[in-house]
Amino acid sequence: MKIRPNKVQFVTADSAPLENARFAVVPVPWEKTTSYGHGTARGPAAVIDASWQLEFLDEETGRETWKEGIFTAAPADCSLSEKKFFPELENYVERLLGSTRAVPFFIGGEHSVTQGLLPPFQKRYKDLSILHFDAHADLRPEYEGTPRSHASALYPASRTTPTVQVGIRSVSHDEKVYMNAGKVKTFLAHAHRDNQALIRKVLASLTGTVYITIDVDGFDPYVMPATGTPQPGGFGWYEALDLFRAVCSKKNVVGVDIVEVAPRKADTVTEFNAAKLAYRLMGYISAGDRR
Ligand SMILES: [Mn+2]
């Protein structure tokens, strides 16, 4: 997989060269194991298209973050077999991290892609922890015959890297043993309804360097309706932003993925909100920049 510019840029027509970019948007339209609703392969292109409807000025942070330079990469090659795809994706991310100081924003695709995205970050940052925002625990060692399932997204990384789960409200009997055990800290949604208290606990559980993986089903379905396996009772928009703002201001956020957008004909709410979320997080990261 080569790192090449995409035909369509995220937010702006002015593509920054990768070397000078502050952020790198990388589409990863991988979809092999979705088990209920389908369509995550069309997620990244829909999010990038929707980003053109955003104002350049982010009204909350007051920043025009695009001016700091956004590079948008051509989609990762998702025509490969599962066996080839994950090592190739890891290799791609390793080269990306080696060639730019830009913070990558990977856009999925199904959540299994996170398995290919994380290892280079784990190698590079010794004090890394993971903020896992999701309705599902995603801790199954394997699901429906493959360890590369969306339902296993966080299992491998969470064996060795502190993993803090929020929004969780769907757990299988099998994965329950991995929650709040070893490196995993799980905040079940129903038990952590006081958002300010939750944010304090999450900040205390994360290390100084953080990778954020966002399954859009961590939000309540009214915020992100078009996703494969929705669950009631998730984060509201402002509750989630309060959490992400706190993490981006107190921690060094080195990478983000936003996965499981599955566009549907009925509306464009989810892809637009995911684009707005990505641009807002860029604003938070650059506002909190201490480098
Ligand atoms: Mn999920």
Give your account of this protein's structure.
With 291 residues, the chain is of the alpha/beta class. The chain has a single domain (18-287), classed as Ureohydrolase domain (Arginase, Chain A). Strand 4 (128-133), helix 4 and strand 5 form a beta-alpha-beta unit. The chain is built from eight helices and eight strands. The chain is globular, with a radius of gyration of 17 Å. The chain has helices spanning 43-51, 82-99, 114-124, 155-158, 173-176, 195-205, 237-250, 269-287, and strands spanning 23-28, 70-72, 103-108, 128-133, 163-168, 184-188, 209-215, 252-259. The chain has an eight-stranded parallel beta sheet, with helices on both faces. The two termini are 30 Å apart. The relative contact order is 0.19. Helix 2 runs parallel beside helix 3 (114-124). It binds manganese (II) ion. Manganese (II) ion (MN) binds next to loops.
Protein traits:
single chain; 291 residues; alpha/beta; Arginase, Chain A; 8 helices; 31% helix; binds manganese (II) ion
Question: What is the third-level CATH name, the topology?
Answer: Arginase, Chain A
Strand content: 15-25%
Q: Which stretches are low in confidence, meaning pLDDT under 50 for 5 or more residues running?
A: none
Strand order of the largest sheet: 2-1-3-8-7-4-5-6
What is the CATH first-level class name? Answer: Alpha Beta
Number of helices: 8
Radius of gyration of CA atoms, rounded to a whole number: 17 Å
Q: Major β-sheet, in short?
A: 8 strands, parallel
Number of strands: 8
**Shape estimate:** globular
**What distance separates the N and C termini?**
30 Å
User: Going by CATH, what is the homologous superfamily?
Assistant: Ureohydrolase domain
What is the correct CATH architecture?
A: 3-Layer(aba) Sandwich
Number of domains: 1
Question: Can you list the ligands bound to this structure?
Answer: manganese (II) ion
Order of helices and strands: EHEHEHEHEHEHEHEH
